[in-house]
């Protein structure tokens, strides 16, 4: 039973700019949904429409059965955490947290009690009388969250709440956010451009691009079964290889003269019979692999230590007719006694047919291969 | 022990060790100090010292005692009244005007126009301003004639532009713009998100103003109004041209300079000291409130 | 929402009316007050009279020259000072800044009072001569310019890496004067120009000090004219307003991208 429903929501700005088009979402009670996408994809605009700071030019938004599409923002009972915290500088932490309750004219004793609960929940003990400028970024964000939760909102909205903080605090805080959200069972929408955040926190992820939804699914679905090229390249890292079709029905392709197979029938070959083949670095391994795996030969181009992971780049052939050679990256876990090949050495690498998929017709035949996602 | 010198590019001077060494570098500031002492400090001191002396040169506090002369007391009272009224009215309306163009939803160009005009108007004080208001509300002023034509004869009432009330009306011409110019950045600094966050919490417009916007703006508001007060208190040219004989402090000093109306120039010095005292308190109040306002602009 | 917007429009209109009506009235008077009881035809004769009057040009010229000299003196005094404070004697900053803020506390009427008493007797009876009085006038105006000239120059210096520039110039053999004039000054030109135009506008409009020092400046000229003539003062007022407007436009034009400082001194 959907708790937060967006149907056909669209936002057109005067002058022809389409910020959001055709947005549909059914979130159940207690679900944690992320809106993930690059800047300008419409995720924040959609969030602001749920909060009431933007009016949709079409579609409806309902919460718990009630249509709130055009309700003024101060009558919606949704709690919002802003990217810049937006704490009221003239009020102490306690007053900030209690502001929503004060506006609702709750008795002072109730307000004090609730503020106390939240101060404890957000680990802000001893800071209740401080003012925002006396707090660190992480503390301010906690206060912002406490303030949003104090009014017991039906929906919690977070607009890139951690983007202004350093990496370590971000990881700590996002775990806290998730655990509190679970504890309280609040339906939550979380906007971010950081895929790691989205994947690690969410029950479901909405991947957006240029105002449209690209895919809605669980983190695992988004990562392992991307339904569009955009999703595949936005989430995680990916090798994209320009390959020629040998036989579409059996999924056989040629990469620089070496044959590989995908597990599905190829349907999107371009007119020239070339496609973009995608395979994740962690799907490729050094060595011959199991029987039935695709095997290709090449030479080691470079090796990068990324900490827990080692990324090895393999050149699969030579320059062919003005096109640079195909290079793929493979990731392997960094173990103490890892036996790595030397740069320049000839190696065999393998990947199962299920680990690769065709993304579509090859768009650019001058490029043999590309690595998208987190750069090294 | 060597000087702790931090010479990253962009850093200005090395940190001098506290206290110990007399730096010959202070000599470089000599021209400035000589000038300031000659033309600012010494003249002021002349007044200070003179206020504690009699006309024959003996030290006395009598001049300060004589400040209780009803005419002088009235002058101070009138000046303070005029300054207070124009500061409050100028402050409130100037604030509303600034808010109207910055946050009130008026078209952008109007805001820029107001700012530029305010820059001009705040300097349009003195003789030209007095004349302009004579042409507007004087006996044969344009507005006076217009009002008469619709049945309201200004000349029948007690009102005249050449009075305290007239002066107040004229002073507002540079008080409004000053308020606008100084408050505009403070109003622009009211983050839109604070408004949104307050709405998100369920607050109405009134509650937003009462609990958030006004408290945040209050130090700037009060500070600028104090500045407006000082501005009006020290004004002389406009009053001179418009009212001549009005009994306010600046004109009192003015008359003292042109002719010894107090029969005692040292008393004049004491009056001047009174003015400086009022201005000093004003500036201190302004600085203190500015510090408070700066706290929230992080 | 629309209802509140109307309220702001009303406020704006009231403000606009208050500002424009006196200007319109002045302009109308400058045309001979055609809307007055005499019912004369509007005419630009009064402008012609003013613009051909030697007193007008004389006083305007005098004030203009005084203004330029004031600007030069002020910059010559404050630029090296601000530079020195930043580079060599940062501990002097509070003292220097305090002095530059004193003119706020000592209004022009008091300043001229003190100057007259100090310099009308030995050892430096400057008020005895025209030249001496003009010198005093320039000195007074320089003092008046302190608060915002210093601030403008200081802001300009802050944005420039004067330390590196100085060291580079010194390593190439330059002396202090050359460094200041050729290396530092061009870099703070924009900041200074804004302050300069403001000073000019204020000097030209100033009345109090000029009148008590008995100088043939523009302010006293207009005051006298205002007491003696009916319509010519209006023409001069319009011209004066136009000049101030011009100065402000120059400041806005030069100071694009930065906040311009508001003057709280000058004729009041």
- Multimer state: heterotrimer
As for the number of domains of chain B, it is 1
Radius of gyration of chain B: 25 Å
| CATH superfamily descriptor of chain B | MetI-like
What is the typical, i.e. mean, pLDDT of chain B?
A: 84
The pair of chains with the biggest contact is: B-C, 97 and 96 residues
Tell me the CATH superfamily of the largest domain in chain C: MetI-like
Number of strands of chain B: 0
Distance between the termini of chain C: 40 Å
Largest beta-sheet characterization of chain C? none
Summarize the amount of helix of chain B as a percent range: 55-70%
Radius of gyration of chain C: 22 Å
CATH topology annotation of the largest domain in chain C: MetI-like fold
Shape-level CATH architecture of chain B = Orthogonal Bundle
Total count of helical runs of at least 4 residues of chain B: 12
Described by the principal axes of the CA atoms, the overall outline of chain C is globular
Task: Indicate how many domains the architecture of chain C comprises.
Answer: 2
* Helical percentage of chain C: over 70%
Q: Which descriptors apply to this entry?
A:
heterotrimer; B: 298 residues; mainly alpha; MetI-like fold; 12 helices; globular; C: 268 residues
Provide an overview of this structure.
The complex is a heterotrimer of chains A (376), B (298) and C (268). Chain A has 376 residues and is α+β, with helices and mostly antiparallel strands. In chain A, 23% of the residues lie in helices and 35% in strands. Chain A contains 8 helices and 21 strands. Chain A has helices at 43-51, 93-103, 108-121, 137-150, 167-184, 195-201, 219-224, 229-234; strands at residues 2-12, 18-28, 32-36, 58-63, 66-67, 78-81, 155-159, 187-192, 204-209, 212-217, 238-247, 252-255, 258-261, 274-279, 285-286, 294-305, 309-315, 327-333, 346-351, 356-361, 369-372. A 6-stranded mixed beta sheet of chain A has the order 6-7-8-3-9-10, sandwiched between helices. In chain A, strands 11, 12, 13, 14, 20 and 21 form a 6-stranded antiparallel beta sheet that branches. A 5-stranded antiparallel beta sheet of chain A has the order 15-19-16-17-18, with no helix packed on it. The longest helix of chain A has 18 residues, at 167-184. Chain B is mainly alpha-helical and 298 residues long. Chain B has a single domain, classed as MetI-like (MetI-like fold, Orthogonal Bundle), CATH 1.10.3720.10. Chain B is built from 12 helices and no strands. By secondary structure, chain C is mainly α. Chain C has helices at residues 2-30, 45-51, 54-87, 93-105, 108-119, 130-158, 162-171, 176-187, 189-205, 208-212, 218-228, 232-254. Chain C has 2 domains: 1-43, no CATH class; 61-254, MetI-like fold. The chains are: A alpha+beta (376), B mainly alpha (298), C mainly alpha (268). Chains in contact: A-B, B-C. Chains B and C meet through helix 1, helix 3, helix 4, helix 5 and helix 6 of B and helix 1, helix 3, helix 4, helix 5 and helix 6 of C.
